[in-house]
Design goal:
CATH architecture: 3-Layer(aba) Sandwich
Number of strands: 11
CATH class: Alpha Beta
Order of helices and strands: EEEHHHEHEHEEHEHEHEHE
Strand order of the largest sheet: 6-5-4-7-8-11-10
Low-confidence stretches: none
Largest sheet: 7 strands, mixed
Strand content: 15-25%
Radius of gyration: 19 Å
Shape: globular
Number of domains: 1
Bound molecules: zinc ion
Helix content: 25-40%
Distance between the termini: 44 Å
Number of helices: 9
């Protein structure tokens, strides 16, 4: 790593829950520094690395190499996501803001389809790539620092961004203020209640032992500060001024195969009919309340 970081210092301590403000917090995984709020069940890294340390690690120019290698598959993934967002928005076009726009593949596609696009991004290397590859001028930094005019977007998207930000509630409140009346948000995050964790949860129940299920955050890898279950994400959206319309599964696979598509189809059908969401990633659409 050019930044020289090998491990993160966990120097920043949170004393309350970002979702509900609760102050009774329990450790659920000491090795990975994951705590849970006793009131609402929100799980998050605490203590956690500082934003400066995280930013230094994410601006590693090599961090996006695998995205570039997978670009063809990723285009398909982004098309499916845009299709879904457009259906949720009722087929209309307008102004679209993508928070954490990465190298701009999604925004470039939306622009091709007639959307007026804006993006924010914290990684300087991603901003450079978006400029070079798509002539997109992304706004550097967190959404709250972007100083965008209130009520100026019909759609705001956060594709696997909320698990990275220091305050999900603050990001969503800002997104809410940026939406026009009746505007819509699309949020996708990894699903902390995905089917893969069920056998381990059962084992824990049967053996009555604590187990370590979270990976510690490491420089040079994706830093997830929050772990969302569907009920927690729904509560968070309510509390930040949204009316969730649909909770489904995000088709997050950069190289879709018949197996991944079948899996997404099945978990979506299960979520629709039973409300049980076992997909690897959640996708929630919500209107500004
Ligand atoms: Zn809470």
């Amino acid at each position: 790593m050019e930044s020289g970081l090998r491990t993160f210092a966990h120097e920043e301590v949170l004393t309350s829950c970002d979702v509900c403000g609760g102050i009774e917090l329990h450790t659920v995984d000491a090795r990975a520094h994951v705590m849970e709020c006793a009131s609402c069940g929100y799980r998050f890294v605490n203590p956690r690395p500082t934003q400066a340390d995280i930013a230094a690690a994410s601006s590693d120019p090599r961090a996006y190499d695998h995205w570039l290698r997978e670009e063809e598959g990723r285009k398909l993934m982004w098309q499916k996501r845009l299709d879904l967002a457009e259906r949720a928005a009722g087929g209309r076009r307008g102004r679209l803001l993508d928070v954490g726009a990465g190298i701009g593949t999604f925004l470039a596609l939306a622009r091709e389809r007639g959307w007026e696009v804006t993006g924010t991004e914290v990684s300087e290397s991603a901003i450079r790539l978006a400029r070079k590859r798509h002539s997109l001028e992304l706004i550097p930094g967190q959404l709250q620092e972007a100083r965008l005019p209130a009520g100026s977007f019909e759609v705001v998207t956060l594709w696997h961004v909320l698990e990275h930000v220091p305050s999900p509630s603050s990001a969503l409140r800002t997104a809410n203020s940026l939406l026009s009346p009746g505007g819509m948000i699309v949020v996708a995050v990894p699903n902390d209640a995905r089917a893969m964790v069920l056998p381990r949860r059962l084992k824990r129940l049967l053996t009555r032992t604590a187990y370590e299920r979270y990976e510690p955050v490491v420089p040079g890898q994706e830093v997830h500060l929050s772990h969302f279950r569907p009920d927690v994400l729904r509560r968070l959206l309510h509390r930040t001024g949204f009316e969730p319309a649909r909770v489904t599964v995000d088709d997050q696979y950069p190289k879709p195969t018949s197996w991944t598509s079948a899996r997404v189809g099945l978990t979506r059908a299960l979520a629709r009919t039973t409300g049980l969401n076992l997909g690897n990633s959640l996708l929630v659409t919500a209107h500004r309340a």
